[in-house]
Amino acid sequence: MLTLFLRAVLLYLFVFLILRLTGKRQVADLQPFDLLVTLLIADLAGCAIADTSIPLAYSVVPILALYLVQQGLTFIALKNDKLRRVICGSPVILIADGVVSEQAMRDTNYTIIDLLDQLRAKDVFDLDNVAYAILETNGTMSVLQKGCFQTPTVRDLGLVEERAGLSYMLILDG
Fold first, then answer.
1. How wide is the angle at C-alpha 130 spanned by C-alphas 124 and 134, nearest 5°?
2. Residues contacting residue 131 through CB under 8 Å, at least 6 positions apart
3. pLDDT tens digits, residue range 99-131?
4. Is there a contact between 11 and 49 (Cβ–Cβ < 8 Å)?
5. Bridge partner residues of 144 (DSSP)
6. Which residue, 31, 2, 1, 37, is CA-closest to 15?
């Protein structure tokens, strides 16, 4: 039992380190490729934790290999727009100028129920209020409401002067 406990702790720390090195903070930040790598890493770690007959190196080496492949493809995708579109996909405009694109909905396997659900999550309850809705590559939706339905900002109301420069924290945790 102590061996299982130690293997679990060691692999947890190792996988945690690898996932932190990828730079992703939460599942919403993951592209499909990143999610796949994360699931594969979890599976490799889980096998080594549960089966003590498998040497730890049999999980550590493939995890490192997946990490290196993921980092390599990420680097290449930063330099090559075509490869980035293949790996990460492209955002899809589901609503353009207030008109729902049926073809885009079919291409993304989105139903009108899915669309309305995502719009409600963005506090938009009427489809007629939407100018643009874009399905992002990570599965979230960006919504731009028509001008008359947008929430005015303090700047729109002319209540605040423009301020240039960055804010600096003078006191932190004190």
1. 95
2. 95, 97, 98, 144, 145, 146, 147
3. 999 999 999 998 999 999 999 999 999 999 999
4. yes
5. 132
6. 37
3-state class (DSSP) for residue 172: coil
Q: What is the residue type of 7?
A: R
CB neighbours of residue 78 within 10 Å? 10
The DSSP line for 30-74 is: --HHHHHHHHHHHHHHHHHHH-TTS-THHHHHHHHHHHHHHHHHH
Cα–Cα separations (whole angstroms), residue 107 to 32, 60, 102, 119, 134: 17, 38, 9, 19, 13
For the whole model, what pTM was predicted?
Answer: 0.63
Integer-rounded Cα radius of gyration of the chain: 23
Question: Which residues, including other chains, have CB under 8 Å from residue 90's CB and lie 6 or more apart?
Answer: 137
